[in-house]
Design goal:
Layout: E1 6-12, H1 19-28, E2 38-40, E3 43-44, H2 49-60, H3 66-82, E4 85-93, H4 94-99, H5 104-122, E5 125-133, H6 138-149, E6 156-162, H7 174-182, E7 186-187, E8 190-191, H8 197-203, E9 210-213, H9 221-230, E10 233-236, H10 238-243, H11 255-260, E11 265-267, H12 272-275, H13 279-288, H14 294-307, H15 312-329
Length: 330
């Protein structure tokens, strides 16, 4: 059986740690997992999107060392490799690591160690996106952008903005994006998930080449056409969207309509253990619910590699792997 090669551009690193790993990390750090994190031993507790953010923050509070970040990175990438994934961009938060008392250098080096070890053991590649949490305000985002633009590690290749999208529109964060644009780094932004088309239009005022989610653009046909014209890539997370209630079912999801409009799409798991997702699972959803063939799924992977913020030699290497896998399947 042929395994479709996969790539993922939208996953939050701290949100990849399953309950068992969270408990192991807490024990190692001599901490108790905060009350209310787990609904049961194998499932996180949350009621809605804002409550999910609160649970996420509580989990991050026990992640205290570079070794913790190494283990989270390694275990997630190993699981992705078992699904046939060749490349992942991991969104990591300086805000969360600083709040937990971890120095920036140790934070980045821990993630990088996990990437290196996963490459050695499983042949998977990964890079890092530095994310600002919009809830903490514009000035903090500018500070995170400056730290990112200083290129704290060669694996830090881009910048993103996440958090409470509905409460914090993207336009005021333009100064942060101008900083990372000047530094020549990749740029994406969360929009069009918990706020509608106006959020996406606001995001398009920023110098971005990708939009994280962006699916609520479907409510405005003119906006859909503009995204396609500008060839902006949407990082789509179908399972997250359905589990969180952005769309009631996969059948109601606009993936196919956005694709038919000519918008480049990728597949991401967002925060896998919170939503019962995985990168392999998202590809299965695209096959089973959206009817994509293996050839079309490989095209989704190619979209991801081409839209990635990986350095050009790595991007070329990954594209060659895809071409070679296509030939092998003939």
């Amino acid at each position: 059986m042929t395994v479709v090669p996969k790539a993922e551009l939208h996953v939050h690193l701290e949100g990849t740690a399953p309950p068992d790993l969270v408990r192991r990390i807490a024990r190692r750090n001599g901490l108790d997992v905060p009350e209310g994190v787990f609904a049961d031993p194998d499932r996180f507790a949350w009621r809605d999107f804002l409550d999910f953010l609160d649970t996420y923050n509580l989990v991050c509070s026990v992640i205290r060392t570079g070794e913790d970040y190494r283990d989270i990175t390694y275990e997630y990438l190993a699981s992705c490799a078992r699904d046939g994934t060749i490349y992942v961009e991991l969104t990591a938060s300086i805000d969360h690591s600083r709040i937990a008392g971890l120095g920036d250098s140790e934070h980045w080096e821990g993630i990088a160690a996990g990437i290196d070890d996963a490459r050695r053991d499983h042949g998977i590649e990964a890079r890092i996106l530095s994310v600002a949490v919009r809830n903490y305000g514009v000035e903090r985002a500018i500070e995170i952008a400056e730290a990112t633009a200083a290129r704290p590690h060669p694996y830090v290749v881009g910048f993103s903005l996440a958090g409470d999208e509905a409460g914090y529109p993207p336009e005021p964060y333009l100064p942060a994006y101008e900083i990372v644009e000047k530094a020549g780094m990749g740029r994406t932004v969360h929009a069009g998930e918990w706020a509608g088309p106006d959020s996406v239009r606001g995001a398009m005022q920023l110098p971005v080449t990708r939009i994280s989610h962006g699916v609520r653009a479907i409510e405005d046909p003119g906006l859909v056409a503009e995204i396609a014209r500008r060839e902006l890539t949407l990082e789509v997370c179908p399972t997250s969207n359905v589990v969180l209630g952005v769309f009631p079912t996969y059948e109601d999801h606009p993936f196919l309509a956005l694709r038919a409009a000519g918008i480049p799409l990728t597949l991401g798991s967002d925060d896998p253990p919170y939503f019962g997702a995985s990168v392999g699972g998202e590809y299965r959803v695209a096959g089973e619910h959206f009817g994509l063939s293996d050839e079309e799924l490989v095209a989704i992977t190619r979209n991801a590699v081409e839209a990635s913020f990986a350095e050009p030699p790595l991007r070329s290497k990954l594209l060659k792997e895809l071409t070679d896998s296509d030939r092998a399947a003939l």
